């Protein structure tokens, strides 16, 4: 019995200590993350806006990303130096690692530099803390006495108070016993970073909220649901890189287009209320017809895509509930045609919202819904990655048996991504809702920057998290392809958000067609009562309505036609690819560049002219690739359906 007790105590003691005789370390990945965030996100984050201001919109973000990559690489190298050799003795500090690997002389140099940096960081933290305490006092003073009041507070006393507090805290024995300090500090760092980010964004969009809401509602549509699939076709390098490239291209083309809202001068010229007005003012009647046809074709196609996506989401809700009740292997099948008809009926009613100026509430609701289902898709993707315990996927994307099949899928993935930034189609209609001063083009450029930054962040998160979760099994539609089954109520809610968003998004894309068609018919048939007369209709509990017979007929036929085509070609990814190709180069690149060249009187073969033309040609080649790949996908899907 004594021997057994002795053995038991020995085993317990061994379990309580590490291989170096010290008490067993209890740190995990998450405590390590907390320590790192506490160490990294310090006073430096408060100066990043100033640093970005010095480097500009290109240099600032590039510098941040470059330093992030550099630090990650060096950290990975340093992590391997904790033991010498790999399974050898532990190095408890940076200096121990240098001594074990590089000898005594270099240790003295490294120690001096390390302690100098740590000492300097302590000084910086003292200054920052005192400044923050002073800022609190100033903020309260300004609030009470007004923003022009002489509120001045010295920082020396605040530094002394901070120093006394740090003397007390310095008696915490070592870092292993400071997990709670790091956790609290990490939470605080997240808090003030998010507050600073939120205040910055709020300051930028204070006068732009309606434009930003229109942009987000117009951009984050059904395209976001295919990004995980597109990323899976392009792989871990090509997918994110393609998203960033299209975001940059969209921003450049949008800034060019913003200057075309007025002509001939971009600030004081005559307003162009729509995309076609701008083309006509700068490029003449013939090109206006071409641009108008392409624009309305793209808008029309987007409405078709929204019908398909909404029906798919409605069907997904029914399937989700069925799978929850009967199991994931149950034969839960629901056709989409009926749901397309239901969506069309709703759109017929909503199509009588007169114009985009009266649709701010629709855009706001749609933007909220887009945020909601994007966050849900992102969260479910991350949760699946954590559950799997690893990141799925590969650098080259999903493999195929034939090289030509892989080529078609890559082309289609590129086209789907190009569809994700479609709002140049309604760009000038949105800009036409802005007040001035400041000049509309300046406001719109700011709104574009905010809108594209927000949407690109979501696109990267949704695309990458979906691919990381499912790898080669990534569904074409992230939330309706049933990569996720549970929690079923959350999947249902996400699809409900998609439906609400696309109900509003459909109207945003259809209203320009309604407005233009009604103006054209009104001018052409100026004496027709059917086209021009309005009739009053009073319904119980509703305000008096102005009814126009032509408007009722045209908008009803429009919705019916989009619904019918969606029923005939219910191929989500392929349809998005074709629409992306129709919209991307002709409308988002070619015509804006042509208008900009004419408006700014850019001489042929000048350096600026060559840059713009080269940019246009490069985008044209990408456009052809995407269009061919998507058409091949539609033909293959239709033939497969007919054969089946």
TrEMBL record:
Domain of life where this protein originates: Eukaryota
Subcellular location per the Swiss-Prot or TrEMBL entry: Cell membrane; Endomembrane system
Domain Amino acid transporter transmembrane: residue ranges: 25-195, 207-635
Main localization, broad class: membrane
Keyword entries, A-Z: Amino-acid transport, Auxin signaling pathway, Cell membrane, Membrane, Symport, Transmembrane, Transmembrane helix, Transport
Keyword Cell membrane: yes
GO molecular-function terms, A-Z: symporter activity
Gene Ontology CC entries for this record: endomembrane system; plasma membrane
One protein family per Pfam: Aa_trans
Record-level GO BP terms: amino acid transport; auxin-activated signaling pathway
Mode of membrane association: Multi-pass membrane protein
Sequence intervals crossing the membrane: 29-50, 62-82, 178-201, 208-229, 241-261, 359-386, 447-468, 488-509, 552-572, 578-598, 610-635
InterPro entries the record matches: AA_transpt_TM
Role description: Carrier protein involved in proton-driven auxin influx. Mediates the formation of auxin gradient from developing leaves (site of auxin biosynthesis) to tips by contributing to the loading of auxin in vascular tissues and facilitating acropetal (base to tip) auxin transport within inner tissues of the root apex, and basipetal (tip to base) auxin transport within outer tissues of the root apex. May be involved in lateral roots and nodules formation.
UniProt family annotation: Belongs to the amino acid/polyamine transporter 2 family. Amino acid/auxin permease (AAAP) (TC 2.A.18.1) subfamily.
Protein name stated in the entry: Amino acid transporter transmembrane domain-containing protein
Taxonomic lineage: Eukaryota, Viridiplantae, Streptophyta, Embryophyta, Tracheophyta
């Amino acid at each position: 019995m004594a021997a057994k007790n002795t053995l038991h105590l020995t085993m317990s003691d061994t379990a309580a200590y590490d291989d170096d005789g010290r008490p067993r370390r209890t740190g995990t990945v998450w405590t390590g993350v907390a320590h790192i965030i506490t160490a990294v996100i310090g006073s430096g984050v408060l100066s990043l806006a100033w640093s970005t201001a010095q480097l500009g919109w290109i240099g600032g973000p590039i510098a941040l990303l470059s330093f992030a990559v550099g630090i990650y690489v060096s950290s990975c190298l340093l992590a391997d130096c904790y033991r010498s050799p790999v399974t050898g003795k532990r190095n408890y500090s940076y200096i121990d690692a240098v001594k074990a690997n590089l000898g005594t002389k270099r240790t003295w140099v490294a120690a001096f530099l390390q302690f100098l940096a740590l000492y300097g960081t302590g000084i910086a933290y003292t200054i920052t803390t005192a400044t923050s305490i002073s800022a609190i006092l100033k903020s309260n003073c300004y609030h009470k006495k007004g923003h022009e009041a002489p509120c001045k507070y010295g920082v020396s006393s605040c530094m002394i108070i901070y120093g006394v507090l740090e003397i007390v805290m310095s008696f915490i024995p070592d870092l292993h016993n400071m997990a709670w300090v790091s956790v609290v500090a990490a939470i605080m760092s997240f808090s003030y970073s998010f507050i600073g980010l939120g205040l910055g964004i709020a300051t930028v969009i204070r006068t732009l909220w309606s434009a930003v809401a229109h942009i987000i509602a117009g951009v984050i549509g059904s395209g976001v649901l295919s990004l995980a699939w597109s990323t899976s076709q392009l792989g871990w390098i090509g997918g994110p890189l393609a998203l960033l490239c299209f975001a940059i291209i969209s921003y450049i083309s949008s800034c060019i287009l913003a200057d075309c809202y007025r002509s001939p001068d971009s600030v004081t010229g005559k307003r162009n209320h729509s995309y076609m007005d701008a083309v006509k003012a700068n490029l003449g009647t013939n090109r206006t017809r071409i641009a108008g046809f392409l624009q309305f074709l793209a808008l029309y196609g987007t409405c078709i895509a929204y019908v398909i996506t909404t029906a798919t989401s409605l069907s997904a809700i029914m399937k989700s509930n069925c799978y929850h009740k009967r199991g994931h292997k149950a034969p839960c099948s629901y056709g989409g045609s009926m749901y397309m008809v239901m969506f069309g009926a709703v759109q017929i009613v909503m199509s009588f919202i007169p114009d985009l100026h009266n649709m701010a509430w629709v855009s706001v609701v749609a933007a909220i819904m887009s945020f909601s289902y994007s966050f849900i898709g992102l969260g479910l993707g991350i949760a699946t990655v954590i559950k799997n315990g690893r990141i799925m996927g590969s650098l080259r994307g999903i493999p195929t048996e034939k090289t030509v099949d892989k080529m078609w899928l890559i082309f289609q993935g590129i086209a789907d991504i190009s569809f994700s930034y479609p709002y140049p189609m309604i760009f000038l209609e949105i800009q036409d809702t802005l007040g001035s001063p400041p000049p509309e083009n300046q406001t719109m450029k700011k709104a574009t920057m905010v809108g594209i930054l927000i949407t690109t962040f979501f696109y990267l998160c949704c695309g990458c998290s979906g691919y990381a979760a499912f790898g080669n099994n990534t569904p074409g539609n992230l939330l309706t392809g049933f990569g996720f089954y549970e929690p079923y109520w959350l999947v249902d809610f996400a699809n409900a958000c998609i439906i609400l968003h696309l109900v509003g998004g459909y109207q945003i894309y259809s209203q320009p067609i309604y407005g233009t068609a009604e103006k054209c018919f009104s001018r052409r048939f100026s004496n027709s009562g059917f086209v021009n007369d309005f009739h009053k209709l009073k319904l119980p509990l509703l305000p008096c309505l102005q009814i126009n017979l032509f408007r009722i007929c045209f908008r009803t036929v429009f919705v019916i036609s989009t619904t019918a085509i969606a029923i005939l070609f219910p191929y989500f990814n392929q349809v998005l690819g074709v629409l992306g190709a129709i919209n991307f180069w002709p409308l988002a690149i070619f015509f804006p560049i042509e208008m900009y060249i004419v408006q700014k009187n850019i001489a042929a073969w000048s350096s600026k002219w060559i840059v713009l033309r080269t940019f246009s040609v490069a985008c044209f080649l990408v456009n052809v690739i995407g269009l061919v790949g998507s058409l091949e996908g539609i033909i293959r899907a239709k033939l497969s359906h007919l054969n089946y």
